[in-house]
């Protein structure tokens, strides 16, 4: 099976812009989670989707949002970008009933200037 | 979810066993121990998990003490490619509102030397 894929891999934006990141889970996985990783805060949970519904949300401002499509592919959006949003954004998918065994994609590295 | 304590860094010679400890003294009876690792600039990779029995797979072995307050991840023959940050995570498997949510600490930076 193909692994989790994320696009784009690298992105440069300026403050105030918005960005959309995409994630394609492993075939058959319906749970998709998003994490933000920065040197200062480490890996932090953003949100999780299952069957097109947000099932969980971390402590991030409303500028961070996401959605999941019927084919389980997911997107996350960050509006009004701030310098502090520069990070590696990781997507993970998991099989139903074993959501702790998550398979991560390579991530999208976002740089906000 | 229970908190974990791991050493910040460890070294290991290539070909030797790497033993990575994790303390989880407040673990509850229904909480599992999970191990993930993250090689530089890549996404985390699932390694192994267990409840109370020792577990082994093609990547590693997990030894959990009888009182379950600590565990050790063992890489039997470390290679240079095992250099990574190793995360020990303790949580209830598939529980309600925290389903699909992992809490990563700072982990242990394992460096394997040639």
Please tell me about this protein's structure:
The complex is a heterodimer of chains A (113) and B (114). Helices cover 0% and strands 53% of the residues of chain A. Chain A contains no helices and 11 strands. In chain A, strands 2, 4, 5, 6, 9, 10 and 11 form a 7-stranded mixed beta sheet that branches. Chain A has a 4-stranded antiparallel beta sheet with strand order 1-3-8-7, with no helix packed on it. Chain A is globular. Chain B has no helices and 9 strands. In chain B, the strands form 2 sheets. Chain B has a 5-stranded mixed beta sheet with strand order 1-9-8-3-4, with no helix packed on it. Chain B starts with 8 loop residues before the first strand and ends with a strand. In chain B, β6 (61-64) and β7 form a beta hairpin. Chain B is mainly β and 114 residues long. Chain B has strands spanning 9-13, 18-23, 31-38, 45-50, 55-56, 61-64, 70-75, 84-92, 108-113. In chain B, 0% of the residues lie in helices and 46% in strands. The interface between A and B is medium-sized, with 28 and 24 residues.
Number of strands of chain B: 9
| Net shape of chain B | globular
Number of helical segments of chain A? 0
- Helical amount among residues of chain A, as a percent range? under 10%
* Average of pLDDT of chain A: 93
Please compute the radius of gyration of chain B using only Cα atoms: 14 Å
């Amino acid at each position: 099976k193909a692994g989790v894929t994320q696009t784009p891999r690298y992105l440069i934006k300026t403050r105030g812009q918005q960005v959309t990141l995409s994630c394609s889970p492993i075939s058959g996985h319906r749970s998709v989670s998003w994490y933000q990783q920065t040197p200062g805060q480490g890996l932090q949970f953003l949100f999780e989707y299952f069957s097109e519904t947000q099932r969980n949300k971390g402590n991030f401002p409303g500028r961070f949002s996401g959605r999941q499509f019927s084919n389980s592919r997911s997107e996350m959006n960050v509006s009004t970008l701030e310098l502090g949003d520069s990070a590696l954004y990781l997507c993970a998918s998991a099989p139903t009933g074993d959501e702790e065994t998550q398979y991560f994609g390579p991530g999208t590295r976002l740089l906000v200037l | 979810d229970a908190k974990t304590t791991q050493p910040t860094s460890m070294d290991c010679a290539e070909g030797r066993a790497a033993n990575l400890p994790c303390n989880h003294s407040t673990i509850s009876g229904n909480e599992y121990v999970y191990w993930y690792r993250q090689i530089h600039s890549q996404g985390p990779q699932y390694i192994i998990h267990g409840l109370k029995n020792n577990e082994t797979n093609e990547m590693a072995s997990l030894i959990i003490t009888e009182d379950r307050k600590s565990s050790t991840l063992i890489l039997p023959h470390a290679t240079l490619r095992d250099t990574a940050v190793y995360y020990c995570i303790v949580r209830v498997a598939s529980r309600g509102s925290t389903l699909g949510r992992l809490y990563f600490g700072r982990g242990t930076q394992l460096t394997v030397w040639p």
